[in-house]
Predict the 3D structure of the following.
Amino acid sequence: MRALIVDRLAPDYAGVSLQDVPVPTPGPGEVLVKVRAAGVNFPDLLMTRGDYQMKPPLPFGLGMELSGEVEALGPGVEGLTLGEAVVGGAKLGGFAEYALLPAAAVRAKPAALSFAQAAGYGAAYLTAYVAFVRRANLQPGEWVLIHGAAGGVGLAAMDLAKSMGARVIATSASDEKLAVLEREYAPDAVLNVTRGFREKVKEITGGGADVIYDPVGGDVFDESVRCIGFDGRLLVIGFTSGRIPEISVNMPLIKGFSVVGVRAGEYGRQFPERGRENQAAIWKMAEEGRVKPRVHAEVPLADWREAFELLAGRKVIGKAVIRPDL
């Protein structure tokens, strides 16, 4: 089978190549999935140069989340059938024609989602759910400022916050992306961060945002500190800007807000029962059609570099997915 393999860590994906490798055989408790689509995430890009916190030994296959059909079941696996449409969290090896996963990481694909939508759904919406439900205790009617709202993680957050009854201000550095968000998701307000946003946020909200969702970091975080309301929650999701910001602790003290770290996967590992509840909740939302994940591009496996560069170049609105069957 064809699989995307990292043989060495290097910039510009120089250590990544599409290779022919044996199809794996599922062992006890494992499932072999014929991959129909795999979502592209920033950690995939970071892992190609060794900049992500998870550093698997070389060589390794890329691809953290996927959808497809059950091809084979290992001994002891129950509750799944051959040919069944499923989604799964692979951590590694999703950008391939077949992927081997623990049975516990596989669930039935919601009928309401296409394979492409399902492949890019789990990680982004789980992050948003843990952020808003578990960490921020977001309430209906609260103002949420969502940075990077056109990206996969940001768009999921906007979609989920709207479904929870919050009032949403979506930001981006692109007027074109904001126009798409207005047309397809109807946030309560949109702001271009390149022109500054703190005064506008205070004006729109009447004093400051209740919750700020920040996967960007850098200057965006610095300015967010200036427009968060008293008792607000500033959610630290990531640092796609490339700069990890710092904060003087007198600011949270004086303004009475919290800086809250969000690691959705680690949250589930630390609190397994809550982790299972989180997963069940986001997939129930998908099954009921309460959210609408957006697929920006479906790229053939042979053209994997195109998908990576779309994400790295901030050109994606929603998710890019790689399709081995194209």
